[in-house]
Amino acid sequence: MQTEEQLKELVKQKYSEIALQEKDTNAASCCGASCCSTEVYNIMSDDYTQMEGYNADADLGLGCGLPTQFAKIKKGDVVIDLGSGAGNDAFIARAETGNTGKVIGIDFTPAMIDKARINAEKLAYHNVEFRQGDIEHMPVTANVADVIVSNCVLNLVPNKDAVIKEIYRVLKPGGHFSISDIVLLGDLPENLRSAAEMYAGCVSGAIQKEEYLGLIDKNGFKNVLLQKEKPIIIPDDILKNYLSDTEIAAFKSSGTGIYSVTVYAEKPLESAESCCAPGCCS
């Protein structure tokens, strides 16, 4: 079993490679992890091309949803994109928040930050910036964001509870998030779950759906809403790298489901009810 730091280093290495690949190469593999598939079969991402702000150079085909479509971004909002990659979701968020807003992309991988900054400069976007950092310890002060978005990233983070706590910290009271991610119903086969390559490919790092939603609730968020859910089917030519034919058949009949979900939740407004003593809110 790899440690959290080893898993983080794996993700950094794989996504550094992806930053230098063409989109077609990413799309032919599991979540861009260049792992295996001989089918031209992107098992995760949705089509962004019709969304305002879409930029082909920033689209590496790595997402598993369209969180910005559901994020209720308003003009003038401060938006943070977690795991911002080459900038695709950040640029779409900018189309929503406009010139009076601000978008901050955070990514763990220096090569992705470089690529996103180049794309922003080409587009002359002066209110979009990209910061290198670990989303378990965001390089952002508290209570700064109106909206947080993220696309197929939390499943790559070993300590998901720490990220949820950070999201709560940096959101303004009354702010909200819309996050697309991979979750499970049932247990993955051990060989698939333990495969480092499949961790970087988004699947084996996923946790149970109820556990995922429970972390959001446990950390104080309100009005949690499942905005979208779709099944993810892993092609046989990927599964054959980790499972025998008998194991593949057993996996398919086990009832285990891999799903892309988009989840919305709000940080509560501060209220007088939270005061610990008379005059504490003055």
Walk me through the structure:
There is one protein chain. The chain is α/β, with parallel strands linked by helices and 282 residues long. The chain has a single domain, classed as 3-Layer(aba) Sandwich (Rossmann fold). Strands 1, 2, 3, 4, 5, 6, 7 and 8 form an 8-stranded mixed beta sheet that branches. α1 packs parallel to α5. The longest helix has 16 residues. It is globular. The chain starts with a helix and ends in a 16-residue tail after the last strand.
CATH architecture label? 3-Layer(aba) Sandwich
Question: How do the helices and strands follow one another from N- to C-terminus?
Answer: HHHEHEHEEHEHHEHEHHE
| Sheet/helix structural class | alpha/beta
Roughly what is the average pLDDT, rounded to an integer?
Answer: 82
Helical content (DSSP H or I, runs of 4+): 25-40%
Report how far the terminal alpha carbons are from each other.
51 Å
| Main sheet overview | 8 strands, mixed
CATH topology: the name is Rossmann fold
The parts where pLDDT drops under 50 for at least 5 residues are: 26-42, 271-282
Shape: globular
In total, the number of strands is: 8
Output the CATH class name: Alpha Beta
CATH superfamily: Vaccinia Virus protein VP39
- Overall tally of domains: 1
Number of helices: 11
The Rg value, from CA coordinates, equals 19 Å
Which range does the strand content fall in? 15-25%
